[in-house]
Amino acid sequence: MSEISTRDATRDNTNARDAARDNARDSALSVAAISSERSESDDNVWTRRLVLFLRVMALLSILKGLYHWAQVTGFVGGEDEAFENQSMAWQAATVYFAVIELVAAVGLWLATPWGAVVWLTTVVSMAVIELMFPGIYGGSLVVVGVEVFMLAAYLALAWMAARERPP
C-alpha cells in the first residue's frame, strides 16, 4: 500500500506543478499581449499615420489615373478637346500619367517601398511638366504647390516614422 500511495502522491505533485506552470505561463502570455498592444499603439503612431497618408494618396492616384484614362478614351471633354486633337506632347504626357498613376496607386495602397518611389516619380514628373513645359498642361502653379505640399508631407511622415524605430 505504501508504494501505491507514494506513486499517487508523486503523480499529484506532478499534476499540481504542471497546473501551476500552465497558469503562470498563461498569465505571462496575457500580460505580454496587453503590454505589447499598448507599446505598439504608442510606439508606432507615426508609422500608422504614414500608412494612412499612403492610402489616401493611393485613392487620389486612382482618381488621377482614371481621369487621364477618361481623357484618352474621350469620356471627358468635348469634341475640340478630344485626345486625337491634342499635341503629341500632351498625348504622351497623358498616357504616361494614365499608366503610372495607377501603378503608383497599387504600390501606395500596399505601402511598399516601390510604390512610394513610383508615386514620388509621378509627383516630380507633374511638377516638372507644369514648370518646365507649360505648353503641355498650362503651367499651373497651384498644381505645383499641391505636389510640393504632398511631397513635403510624405517626407515629414517618413522621417518621423523612421525615428520611432530603433536602428
Strand and helix layout:
Elements (H helix, E strand, L loop, with lengths): L1 H42 L1 H29 L14 H22 L3 H20 L1 H4 L3 H23 L4
Describe the protein's architecture and organization.
There is one protein chain. This protein is mainly α and 167 residues long. The chain is elongated, with a radius of gyration of 29 Å. The mean pLDDT is 85. Helix content is 84%, strand content 0%. The longest helix is centred in the N-terminal third of the chain and has 42 residues, at 2-43.
What's the helix count?
6
Helix and strand content put the structural class at mainly alpha
Q: Which spans of ≥5 residues are poorly predicted at pLDDT below 50?
A: none
Arithmetic mean pLDDT:
85
Shape: elongated
Cα distance spanning the termini: 65 Å
SSE series: HHHHHH
Strand content: under 5%
The number of distinct β-strands equals: 0
Helix content: over 70%
Largest sheet: none
Alpha-carbon Rg, integer: 29 Å
Task: Quickly list its features.
mainly alpha, elongated, single chain, 84% helix
